[in-house]
What we know:
The protein has helices spanning 13-22, 48-56, 74-91, 93-102, 120-146, and strands spanning 25-28, 31-38, 60-65, 105-112. By secondary structure, it is of the alpha+beta class. Residues 41-56 have low confidence and may be disordered.
Amino acid sequence: xxxxxxxxxxxxxxxxxxxxxxxxxxxxxxxxxxxxxxxxxxxxxxxxxxxxxxxxxxxxxxxxxxxxxxxxxxxxxxxxxxxxxxxxxxxxxxxxxxxxxxxxxxxxxxxxxxxxxxxxxxxxxxxxxxxxxxxxxxxxxxxxxxx
RNA sequence: AACGCGGAUGGGUUUGUCGCUGUUUUUACGAACAGAGGAAAGUCCGGGCAUCGCAGAGUACCAUGCUUCCUAACGGGAAGGCAUUUUGACGGAGGACAAAAUGACAGAAAGUGCCACAGAAAACUACCGCCACAAUUCGUUGUGGUAAGGGUGAAAACGGGAGGUAAGAGCUCACGGAUGCAGUAGGCAACUACUGUAUCGGGUAAACCUCAUGGGAUGAAAAGCCAAAUAAACCGAGGUUCGAGGGUGACUCGCCCAAGCUCGGAGGGUAGGCCGAUAGAGGUAAAUGGCGACAUUUGCCCCAGAUAAAUGACAAACAUCCACUUGUUGGAUACAGAACCCGGCUUAUAAAUUCGCGUUACAA
Length: 147
């Protein structure tokens, strides 16, 4: 599944504020990744409507940000966002499989922090590494919760 | 021909794999079709649309400023007038003609202010000079007159000539120039030409100001609809007292109004969703009218609609240009991304094409 539909985007202002307030962050080269792991769904709630919503919910939701402060022109920002989104789309499968194993949802807030422009050949390997680091963190935190 | 400067046109094409947004279709998987710009930008003007207010008057504030026309409207555009500059051709020169570019292009004769440096003085001006008178130690000194001459400056009291005078001065005269007013002729008008008459007042209004004309505020995060949560905050009618306070988004005058109470109504509204919101002052072709901006008629076309915000990524081929080590070579392909919608303005823009100007070289 290499799709990337709207369900996988982080749109809600409230959730974004929660992610920013959570302050769990991974720094890696040109990126700053903030994330919030939602607790795994254990019991099926009695409310039928909310249950359906949770089933349809995507495992990972992401918001990609390129600050206006670093890139003044809208064309540059759009181009970078597209490249980053494409890299994420092609490599997110590992992450989603992992999340499905652990039965938890995650919200991601990815910020590009470099002043220089970059192309696909530069971005893609960085995203791969970043996702591997994220998976390690998820393992660590879920173990802590179990203990 | 090359280079430079300034304008106009222009804004690469195709295939494959994996995706994104919308519409249509399908039970579903999926499929088909469409998917950034000339500036989408700056947010500088003008509208549409919507809400609030609507009781007005005056002042203030802001904008505009040759004329006529175009337009939904404009501070935009078209045509014209005038001024300045440049170029060309005519001429001994004055001059006047043509073309192009530029112009916040109403008023400086209502008032106030300002005019660097230099200069005596930047607007009730006398430094040198010239002239008269007085004094004199005969070197000059003082008082007054004088804008013809010198010097300064971007600019020095209309120009140079004659008369005149103590010396001079539009003081007078002829010629010429400028400005106001009146008339005649042409033009819709700005204005132009001529005649008469009065005057000779330096510049600056992108200094205050004066005059004329126009201007309600807000802005899609507006407004409307549905509606978990939450709260009793809401609306309509009646009605008493007070005139404190509030509203009429600057001020003054003027005008209007509350709460408690009674009766009636069942809504209000956050997250979220829908709508606004994409068929329009729309494109395009032809004909007709007009110098033109543009208008009218007819035919054809439907051409993004996202919302933490789609329109992409990768691979390859071609096209155009540049470089050299000339080949299965290496580079380059601008400015820039819709956010309610239109009309403008301004700014950015590679290659290529094209127009104008300048420089250089060659030929005749």
